[in-house]
Design goal:
Largest sheet: 8 strands, mixed
Structural class: alpha/beta
Strand order of the largest sheet: 6-7-8-3-9-10-12-11
Distance between the termini: 24 Å
Radius of gyration: 21 Å
CATH class: Alpha Beta
Strand content: 15-25%
Number of helices: 10
Bound molecules: adenosine-5'-triphosphate
Number of domains: 1
Oligomer: single chain
Order of helices and strands: EEEHEEHEHHHEHEHEEHHHEE
Length: 328
């Protein structure tokens, strides 16, 4: 067990969006779309937490709520002891430089009218306006070099780079403020498989060199396996499992994690004959009207009556595994 204090502690975080039904009268109250509905987790210094789950389960919304890019309905986000959700703009600004984010579409996240030198320098200039021009230039060259972009490219524009290079530039922009946490929201989903591995290896090297913590969001379980210390599985805005990565892949606890793991392709085609693939038959319910009790129960092959009545709490099962399930 790690005796250090967490860098980040998220407790009962809820992000609900107001949605007006089509054709609803102006005076009718909006429905609540529960994108994130009571998420708890800790992130330790130097740890990489993978977050996985189907499209629409709330991964990006969770990341954006931590960064205060969307407002939370309830909960706390303790960052080095301060609750980010109760800070004013100025208080939040002081912490923003400690936590950075990189996004899925590398080209779209870079301003097309700025050179890559200007893009990478911008956060440094914004947070430290008194830093000299020569110091900014030196830092920009240093971080570009660190991510494998030649410093003589500094005056080029984003469209002159490939997707993988644009993601490296995004990483350099995140690194220039020497953050303690980088939240990576599907950073490799838009890249070719061969380039994905290069970007993941780069993130792992940087993480180790700088002692950074990473939150790494992906659809693909095989992507997070390589990079994560622990993996958190989300389903309809709820955490169903948080486990040490090795444990999660070897012996997934929650029936939903078991289904996700069973669907991961394996390199040896002969092994497919013995591989049992669990198919989730019913459709993903709407977060506008989530099932009562356990949100997974409508697709769960093991569901019992209690699952419709009581939401199962996330409980420690030993071996670094926490699972929210009445049955397992
Ligand atoms: N600004 C918004 N207004 C209304 N609903 C939203 C908003 N942002 C997200 N949602 C809804 O919240 C739910 C969670 O979305 P989110 O993008 O966080 O999921 P995700 O797991 O990141 O999905 P993906 O893997 O496709 O990116 C979805 O039902 C989505 O439609």
């Amino acid at each position: 067990m790690n005796a250090q204090s967490p860098l980040l502690s998220v407790r009962d975080l809820k992000v609900w969006f107001d949605i007006k039904a089509k054709g609803a009268m102006p005076w009718t109250a909006p429905d609540k779309l529960k994108a994130v509905d009571g998420v708890d987790f800790d992130l330790m210094p130097g740890e990489t937490l993978g977050i996985v789950g189907e499209s629409g389960c709330g991964k990006s919304t969770l990341a954006r709520a931590i960064m205060r890019m969307v407002p939370a309905e309830a909960g706390t986000v303790l960052w080095l002891g301060d609750d980010l959700l109760s800070l004013n703009k100025q208080g939040m600004r002081a912490h923003r430089k400690e936590m950075q984010m990189i996004f899925q579409d590398p080209l779209a996240s870079l301003n097309p009218r700025m050179t890559i030198g200007q893009i990478v320098a911008e956060p440094l200039k914004t947070h430290y306006p008194s830093v000299s021009k020569s110091e900014v230039k030196a830092r920009v060259r240093e971080v570009l070099d660190r991510v494998g972009i030649l410093p003589n490219m500094i005056n080029r524009y984003p469209h002159e780079f490939s997707g993988g290079q644009c993601q490296r530039i995004g990483i350099a922009r995140a690194l220039i403020l020497k953050p303690q946490l980088i939240i990576c929201d599907e950073p490799v989903s838009a890249l070719d498989v061969s380039i994905q591995a290069q970007v993941i290896n780069l993130l792992m090297e940087i993480q180790e060199d700088m002692g950074l913590s990473l939150i790494f969001i992906a659809h693909d379980l095989s992507v997070v396996k390589h990079i994560s210390t622990r993996v958190m599985v989300l389903y309809l805005g709820n955490v169903v499992e948080i486990s040490e990565a090795e444990q999660l892949y070897r012996a997934p606890g929650h029936p939903y994690t078991q289904a996700l793991i069973s669907a991961v392709p394996i390199p040896d085609p002969k092994a497919y004959a013995d591989k049992e693939v669990l198919i989730l038959d019913a459709d993903l319910p709407s977060p506008l009207n989530p099932p009562s009790g356990c949100v997974f129960r409508t697709r769960c092959p093991l569901a019992k009556p209690v699952c419709a009545e009581i939401k199962p709490p996330l409980t420690d099962r030993g071996n670094g595994q926490q699972v929210a399930c009445h049955v397992i």
